[in-house]
Amino acid sequence: MVTLLCQIGSDLACQNSSSVTISIIKSLIGHFDLDPNRVFDIVLECFELYPDNTIFYQLIPLFPKSHAAQILGFKFQYYQRLDVNIPVPPGLFRIAALLVKSGLIDLDSLYAHLLPNDDDAFEHFDSFVTRRIDEASKIGKINLAATGKDLMDDEKQEITIDLYTALEMENDIVEERALEIEKNQKLGFLLAFLLVHDWDHAQLLFERLAHLNPVEHIEICEGLFRIIRRTISTYDIVFQTFHMMDTPLSSQIFSVDLPKEFFQMLAACGPYLHRDTLLFQKYSYLMYYRFELEFV
Q1: Each residue of 243-265: pLDDT tens digit?
Q2: Which residues form the THO complex subunit 2 N-terminal domain (predicted)?
């Protein structure tokens, strides 16, 4: 069974003989009285090795949908054990996102198997934010006991927080939260949806996990930037227009019909759009051009 699945997984030409492969797998299950759940587990492991082979999308429907989500959930639960001190492999997140994207597994059925619990994660994040606010509020305070009670007001050094200090504080927060994305399987799941360009399900997780401010994580933020670039890639001609100084705008006829998903993605980015100045510039050009067309 493993040899067969690895062979068809590594050979993209075998996709045309998917009906034959399915027939062979059914015969093996029946002839050797194999446990279907164990067979499905093997199928998932091979799919994780060869995620670009579409034949697995035809094999997985052979198994009950509810069982598929449960078995995949058990694979995530394995990495929740205290004696397993390794993070969930990115490949497992990817095939989970691909299966949900294709409709072979329900998001909620798999989401229930992921840790940590939302309430626990929110409580931990609130504690983190409270501690950070307390630390920030102490910046600039002067200890009069150390400097002398007779210190005149005009001799006190004025403490200011400039832009570079603020950015340094942000970097410290990002570094401190870096390990969170390895421990929080739901954040890893969100990142996987962005990597497979599944905005519909990614948006659902952005809404559910909004309390955690997931876009603050560099990996999730970069994944969101990639899917935004992919969404507006068809409007590159608009960006080129702004470099054609000898051609008046009124003579250019381009349609700028932006999908609603584009604005949803920008809303998810929030102020973190500043991390990609080129993308921010494209967004500014695109919106400026769109408003210009309304008055031409």
Answers
A1: 554 455 444 545 567 889 999 99
A2: 14-48, 66-235
Q: What percent of the chain has pLDDT over 90?
A: 43
Which residue, among 14, 91, 93, has the nearest Cα to 48 in the 3D structure?
91
Confirm if 92 and 201 have CB atoms less than 8 A apart.
Answer: no
User: Closest Cα partner for 165 from 125, 131, 143, 135?
Assistant: 135
Q: Judge if 143 and 53 occupy the same domain.
A: no
Give CA–CA dist 37/70, Å, rounded.
10
Residue 181: in which H helix or E strand, if any? helix 180-183
Q: Which residues contact 17 (CB under 8 A, 6 or more apart)?
A: none
Query: Domain of 253?
Result: 213-296
Burial 6-42 (b: 16+ CB within 10 A, else e): eebbeeeebeeebeebeeebeeebeeeeeeeeebbbb
* Higher-scoring residue by pLDDT: 117, 150: 117
Residues 47, 107, single domain; the answer is: yes
Q: How many residues are present in the chain?
A: 296
